[in-house]
Amino acid sequence: MYNDLRHFLKVLTGQGEIVQVSRQVSIVQEIGDICRRVSDMEGPALLFTNLAGYPGWSLCANAVGTLRRTALAIESTVEAMVAEYARRIEGGKLLPSVTVPAHAAPCKEVILRDVDLTKLPIPTWHLKDGGPYISFGVQISKDPDSGVPNASIVRQMVLGPKRLGILLLPGKHTMIHFEKQRQRGRDLELAAAIGVEPTVTAAALHSGSLDEDEFAVCGALRGQPLEMVRCETIDVEVPAHAELVIEGRLLHNETAAEGPFGEFTGYYTKRTDTNPAMEVTCITHRRNPIFQGTYEGKPPNEDNIFHILPYSASVYAEASRLCPNLVSFAFDPYGSGFIYAVAAIDKLYPGHAHHAMHAVWATQSGKYIKVLIVVDKDINIFDHRAVTWAIATRFQPGRDLVLDPRGIGSQLDPAAWPKSGIGGSMGIDATQKWEQEGGPPKGSEQELISHAASPFWREIERLGLGSYLGVDLSRWQGRRVGM
Ligand SMILES: Cc1cc2nc3c(=O)[nH]c(=O)nc-3n(C[C@H](O)[C@H](O)[C@H](O)COP(=O)(O)O)c2cc1C
Ligand SMILES: [Mn+2]
Which end of the chain, C or N, has fewer beta carbons within 10 A? Predict the structure, then answer.
């Protein structure tokens, strides 16, 4: 369990997973460009400590930008993290937050009532972005009827010293809160917490119901309640250990511009002018604050990799109730979010792989999956080499392809029918077929392995292959594609 972002960064330091950049960099496109290149390498977390024009500030990006660091976010392993996330919150075993007084909240170390967003190191990430963007802010508001808080990650564009544009897609809980207030002629109080420990971010991406408190989800993930503190100018509570908090209101009687912005699909979304406008009322931050951002764009990148954990966990939990022996499930981190996924089953009956597909497509977060691959449990779903091998050797298009040419599609899928909400889905059953399923008699990969060299293998297992060969293989140990 991590106390705050600094604690997590310290753990990353201990594991050689972060690089501190003391060379001076510009927040205008230079950090974005560096992040793009480091993302392509699936490289380290980055802590920039010398931001041109912003003395005293640091900027962290790519903190959870690989599967390995994503697993570290909940102190698990890549293979186990999805099921582990689901297990910690299953059956609504949530742990509500606790409120601490302002003097015990590091996010209040500096309180700025004279607000000026241009004094914060908010990067302009891509060439054609409409302005600087807060890309990893946790947006917090309360349901005007029930008082239940909501957390989500929603991007915000700087429009002026006190003004932000915000992209709230229909159906998002913050949007529902805002609509309720707007209809009553009232503003929605909203705070953005920036620079938080990774379970807060993971919980903000949790796809739950409107009455589910994401901070209680966070508590369950951490195994300890999250400490929260009341804002200065609005009746909203925020994580007490956040690096930076921006307080304000979404105005009921104004709209604002948002975009263009380089999206997680690798394409720009256009500027729109009908989004809510946020008026900022107060800024508080820690001493020596760390601004946290994430680079959005074509995979691989942090946004596409990290969010698969909470999204996959919700599909895994829901589909497991519909279909037995679902061993693992994950959205593919290179598949631009919700579009491409792999599941593994421990086959119980003929047709089980098809059952698993329909169970996954029946879930709330799995309904947009366009390409769904089902493999046997001997395949590590995060290892593309193994998945490719399974498709190559266990799948026949004429027998094992499930095709729904027209169905629900996401507006965010760049290949979908324009603006129709119509898409399609394809399932690839790459499990070994039983004879009843028209497959060849069951063979086994194990049968290929000769045990002639067993004494040597035992020796190698005892010493590790590196010591046995007298070379340093530690860099390659346990390494797989995508890790
Ligand atoms: C980096 C990042 C940026 C995101 N930006 C937005 C956004 O601008 N607008 C939006 O509606 N959802 C955005 N999302 C998705 C929401 O955070 C996600 O759907 C969340 O679960 C919504 O919370 P809710 O269920 O409480 O509404 C983003 C996700 C990530 C990881
Ligand atoms: Mn919610």
Answer: N
What pTM did the predictor assign? 0.92
Could you tell me if the CB of 313 is within 6 A of ligand 1? Answer: no
> How many angstroms separate the alpha carbon of residue 155 from the centre of ligand 2?
15
Question: Structural domain boundaries of the chain?
Answer: 5-297, 307-437, 453-483
pLDDT score of 446 more than 60: no
**pLDDT of 437 over the 70 cut:** yes
Q: Is the CB of 169 under 6 A from ligand 1?
A: yes
What is the pLDDT averaged over residues 370-391?
96
| Beta-carbon neighbours within 5 Å of ion ligand 2 | 150, 173
Nearest ligand 1 atom to alpha carbon 155: 8
Smallest CA separation from ligand 1 atom 18, residue: 205
- Residue at 81: amino acid letter: M
Nearest residue to 88 (alpha-carbon basis) of 222, 200, 226: 222
In short, whether 167's Cβ falls inside 6 Å of ligand 1 is yes
Helix axes 81-89, 308-322, angle to 10 degrees: 70
pLDDT at 472: 79
Could you tell me which residues come within 8 angstroms of residue 194 by beta carbon, excluding any fewer than 6 positions away?
Answer: 134, 136, 137, 138, 242, 243, 244, 245, 246, 291, 292
Banded model confidence at residue 408, pLDDT cuts 50, 70, 90: confident
pLDDT digits (tens, 9 = 90+) for 215-240: 999 999 999 999 999 999 999 999 99
Cα–Cα distance, 34 to 37 (Å, whole number):
5
Eight-class DSSP state of 25:
B
Interval between CA 207 and ligand 2 midpoint (Å): 6
What's the alpha-carbon Rg for the chain, to the nearest Å?
Answer: 24
Ligand 1 centroid to residue 136 C-alpha, Å: 10
Three-class SS of 327-339? EEEEECCCCCCCC
pLDDT at 86: 95
- Give residue-wise pLDDT tens across range 239-253: 999 999 999 999 999
Confidence of residue 444 (pLDDT cuts 50, 70, 90): low
Can you tell me the distance from the alpha carbon of 144 to that of 197, in angstroms, rounded to the nearest whole number?
Answer: 27
| CB-ligand 1 contact for 207 (6 Å cutoff) | yes
Q: Distance from the CA of 234 to the center of ligand 2, in angstroms?
A: 20
CATH architecture assignment, domain 5-297: Roll (2.30)
| CATH class belonging to 307-437 | alpha beta
